[in-house]
Design a protein that fits this description.
Layout: E1 4-13, H1 17-31, E2 35-48, E3 51-64
Antiparallel strand pairs: 1-3, 2-3
Length: 67
């Protein structure tokens, strides 16, 4: 039997939502062991002068706890 925990993080990128997701998961994986997936809770953009300057995602990252 395994037990998992979920933690919520926010990640951002100047390139795309996809890049923000990838960067967030990569960073979470540096701190958390056994990252097994993520659920994207929300997406938003930051705009300046009518142009998108930043893509942000809020995600719930799941990781399996060690015995």
């Amino acid at each position: 039997m395994s037990v998992a925990r979920v933690t919520e993080i926010t990640s951002s990128s100047t390139k795309s939502f996809d890049d923000a997701i990838r960067e967030g998961l990569a960073r979470a994986n540096k701190t958390l062991e056994n990252v097994s997936g993520a659920w994207i809770k929300s997406q938003e953009v930051v705009a300046k002068n009518g142009k998108v300057t930043e893509y942000r995602v809020r995600m719930k990252v799941t990781f399996v706890l060690n015995d």
